[in-house]
Each structure stands twice: as C-alpha cells, then as structure tokens.
Amino acid sequence: MSHSAKDEKIFEFFKSVLKSHVDEGGKVRFDKLQGILTSLGRKIPEERIHKIRKKFDTKENGVIDYKDPEFLMTIASINVVDVKAIEDAVYSTAFRIFDKDCDGLISLPEMRTVLTLFLPVKIQQERELVETIIYGMDTQKDGEIRFSEFVTGVKEADTFNLSLYKEEFILAAVLIAGFFLYQILKTFGFVPVIGVYEGPLGGG
Fold it and tell me: What is the spatial distance between Cα 179 and Cα 182, in angstroms, rounded to a whole number?
C-alpha cells in the first residue's frame, strides 16, 4: 500500500519518537509503550496495550519494530487526550520533521497536518476553532509559524477552546433564566397582557 508524502511525515514523526526510547541494546520494548504514549499526550487501557502487543510481538520477545508502517499507523490512530502531558522533546521532533526547508519555519498548510498529531479530536472537529488557533500562531502575519509559537499555540488550545465559547454559554444561561423568570411572573399576574392596537377610540 502506497502512502502520501503527508503520511510518510507522520510515520517519520512516530518512528522518531519511538526511536528516542531505545534501550542500551538499541531496542524499544513493549513495556515502555504506555509511557511513550503518555509523552505523546495519549493514553489507552492496558487491555488495548496487550492487544497491540499480541498483534505485533509475533516473536514474543517484547521488542517493538518501530519501523513497521502498520504498527506506526496503529499508534497514529490513538487520539490525544491530554495536551499538557506532551513532552517538550515531542514538540521538537514534530517541528524538525515538518520544517521541510530547515529554516525554523512551518507554513500554515503544513501546520494543519502537524496539529492532527497534537490536538484532541474534540478540538479538531471544530474546523473554525482549528483555523483560529493556526492563524493565532502566525503572530508575525507572514504565513509562517515559529517553534515557540507552535508550542504556545498547542498548549493553550484547551484553554482557548473554553474561552472562545464562554460568552455563548453565558448568553444562553441568561436567556434561559430570563425565560423561566418570565413564566413565573406571568403565573402570578405580574406580567401585563399587551393587546393589539386597533386605532384611536371613537374614530369615524
């Protein structure tokens, strides 16, 4: 199965992260997998860890083949659940791989791909929010994103998600409260009945 250039970069990212956890013998072991996932902001039940191991540890030696595209695809399919848990080295790895010109910059289109590796699904599903985060990272408004802007933008994503909708939540709460207050006042006769204006009395 052929993969796109985008997929190849995603595989390279996960491969590099896994490789950074090799032991003295140059091996990455399955008993380190949960910790590696945590460094990526991901967490899955131990039961799923066992299933992954059963599928890919065919030699039963506890060693991860971090070059196996199918294994990398499996890891990539695990969703981010805790942005705050992502380690600084993971940010550096992603930026290095997607900085295709090695000039310390990532374009806005490339950043859209990078964010799929760092943002929880609930945020990724809000397309307008993702675009706002990306353009917010571009502080110099030149269509390019620096490393510090990238890290700050991702780390603030959850907070930004809540603050963006804070006003809407408050407005909705006020409207609901107002509706119930109106119903109560109406029940006790405190709300005047407004009739329909039919023109001046005695008009002829």
Answer: 5
CA atoms within 13 A of residue 155's CA, in its CB half-sphere: 13
**Cα distance between residue 151 and residue 34, in whole Å:** 23
Q: What is the pLDDT of residues 103-128, one digit of tens each?
A: 999 999 999 999 999 999 989 988 88
**Phi (first) and psi of residue 193, to 5 degrees:** -85, 125
Tell me: the pLDDT tens digits for 137-188? 999 999 999 999 999 999 988 676 544 545 554 565 677 777 677 677 777 7
- Per DSSP, the residues of 24-63 read TTS-EEGGGHHHHHHHTTB---HHHHHHHHHHH-TT-SSE
- pTM equals 0.75
Half-sphere exposure of 94 (CA within 13 A, CB side): 24
- Residues facing residue 28 across a β-bridge: 64
Residue whose C-alpha is closest to residue 21's, from 44, 8, 38: 38
